[in-house]
Amino acid sequence: MSIRTRTRRGGTIIAVTVLIAFVIAGVGVERIRFGGPIHQRNQLLSDLIGDILPPPEYVIEGYLETTMLMAHPEALAAHKAHLADLEQQFNDRETYWRGSDLAPEVKQIMMAESGPTGHAFWQQVDTRVVPAIAQGDMPAARLAYDQLGAIYAAHRHGIDHLVTAANAEQARTAETSATVLAITVAVLLVIGVVIIGLILMAMRSLARTVVDPIDRIAWQLQAMTDGQFDIPLDTPAGDDEIAAIQHAAITFREAGRTRRAADQAQAQAVTALAQGLHAVAAGDLTCHLPAPFDASYEPLRLAFNQSVERLSGLLATARISAEHVANGANEVRAASDDLANRNQQQAADCEESASALEQVAEMVNQSAHDARAVQREIATARTEADEGGAVVARTVEAMAGIERSSQEIGQIVGVIDGIAFQTNLLALNAGVEAARAGDSGKGFAVVANEVRALAMRAVDAANDIRRIITASGRQVNEGVQLVGATGQLLATIVSRVGAMSDNVNAIADSAEMQADCLKQVSTAVIGMDQLTQQNAAMVEQATAAARSLASEADTLSSSVNQFRINADMPAPLRRRAA
Asked: What is the pLDDT of residue 571?
């Protein structure tokens, strides 16, 4: 039974009891109140006594008026009118009392004794006394008067009896009123005691079935609000509101235990992620979260480990690519230095050739022997020029390899940028979920902001690497163009050296034509010297570009070396780096 039902039933019982008490009190008060039945009965008796002591019911005044008429017959008219008025009053009151609510015994006495004698009195006066006096027959009047005295005595005896009965009835009415009052007071006292008992029982029942359980439930709920979810709870009994509150308290305790476990799992996940993110922010990409999280946070741990491993692999690939770029730049620089040395040697040879041509102008007789010597020197120079062309070709290939490595590094930077974008998106989603979680997701929102900041730093680093790679690629392209131009010049040198060799052969075969061709050879040697000087300048530029590329590669390696990465790089990344 519910508390509402029990309260309604108890309230109904108390209300009905109070209503009965009010009805009984009302009936008792109605009976004894002023104007009530008892008071009306007492008032009727008092009125009756007032009517019969003296008239109109009591005919003493009529008897006195008749006596005065006997003494003064000459005043018959006045006495007759007065007697008629008194008789009318007697009849009116007689009619009133016959229809009243007098006590039966009092009304019986009045109807049987005082009433008939009163009518006999007035009949004697009207039919015997007054007519005799009116006829002047005084003896008959005195005889009728004497008979009237006997009737009056009988009437007075009835009146005395009626007064005695009325007084007795008044005494009984007073006694009844006192009895009703005492009974009413006693009943009201009993009902009051019953009501007080019912109220005490209701209070005790409410204290036992409502107040005490609610007090215990309030203490238990307060304890659970303070985080004590291991306290014992009352077993619900019945189907009332208290049982419903107890069921709700049990549900609240289970929900609190579940939430406490979730908070512990969240705190563990947040602490581990914070440590991992601090390590990543410090440049340590070897950090790993080995301890498993709660099932709801395990995907986050796996995503963190995968992201760190992927980023570590990408940086390892970038490190290897940077090392390859540095090695290629060093090779280009060494080749350019070698080519510069050879160009200097070739320039010296050209100067010696010019000096020899001047001596040829003075020593025409030895032109054949000198021409053979020049032929041998030119052959050597041609061989060296061919070797220089081969070196330039290898330099072009090395530059192309560096350009391809730069493109691969750009692709890797694109992958890093994509990972940073995905990490930023994951951080945004985590921030949205943390916002949905409300106060319990504030810690996770901080983690999401840290992850997002890390992603933004990764994007900035990727942009810096892309900018460096772009500058290196541009410089590599310039080096490739310069080396290509050097190759073309060397090819021109080789062809001209071949032409010079043919001319020298022609000089050896035909000494007569030596003088005519000497000026042309001198001019050709001077041009070759100019070209050699230009080649030397271009080689110096190529060497400077190679050194700049090596410096950029060192800068890239230094940037990547700021991170600690796993020594064992995954096989796919090694193949990609290779």
From this structure: 45
**How many domains does one find in the chain?**
2
With the C-alpha atoms ordered 151, 152, 153, 159, is the resulting torsion angle positive or negative?
positive
Q: For the chain, what is the radius of gyration of the CA atoms?
A: 72
Positive or negative: CA dihedral 379, 383, 388, 389: positive
The DSSP code for 284 is B
In whole angstroms, give the CA distance from residue 134 to residue 502. Answer: 213
In a domain, 244, yes or no: no
Which residues, in sequence order, are bridge partners of residue 329? Answer: none
Residue 124: its pLDDT value, please? 92
- Tell me, what CATH number does 374's domain have? 1.10.287.950
- What pLDDT score was predicted for residue 578? 35
Q: In degrees to the nearest 10, what's the CA dihedral of 39, 43, 45, 46?
A: 130
Q: Residue 18's pLDDT is what? A: 74
pTM over 0.85, yes/no: no
Count the Cβ atoms, other than its own, within 10 Å of residue 225: 10
Q: Which of 201, 181, 176, 178 is nearest to 17 (CA)?
A: 201
Same domain, 215 and 302: no
Which residues, in sequence order, are bridge partners of residue 284? 564
559: CB partners within 8 A, 6+ apart: 461, 464, 465, 468
380 located within any domain: yes
Has residue 205 been placed in a domain?
A: yes
Q: Is residue 484 part of a domain?
A: yes
Q: How far, in Å, CA of 312 to CA of 526, rounded? A: 59
Q: Identify whether residues 147 and 55 lie together within a single domain.
A: yes
**pLDDT means over runs of 10, the chain (578 residues):** 64 78 67 56 56 54 88 89 89 82 79 83 92 92 92 86 83 79 82 85 73 76 76 72 75 76 76 79 76 78 82 77 76 74 73 70 66 74 74 73 73 76 76 74 73 78 79 75 74 74 71 66 71 72 74 74 60 42
Do residues 317 and 203 share a domain?
A: no
Residues 223, 256: Cα–Cα separation, whole Å: 11
Residue 257 CA to residue 230 CA, distance in Å, equals: 8
Q: DSSP letters of 316-359?
A: HHHHHHHHHHHHHHHHHHHHHHHHHHHHHHHHHHHHHHHHHHHH
Rounded distance between C-alpha atoms, residue 398 and residue 408, angstroms: 15
Give the contacts of 133 (CB within 8 A, at least 6 positions apart): 69, 70, 73, 76, 141
Range of the domain at 353: 298-561
Q: How far apart are CA 120 and CA 128, in angstroms?
A: 11
Q: Which residues pair with 564 in a beta bridge?
A: 284
Residue 135: HSE in the Cβ half-sphere, 13 Å Cα cutoff: 12
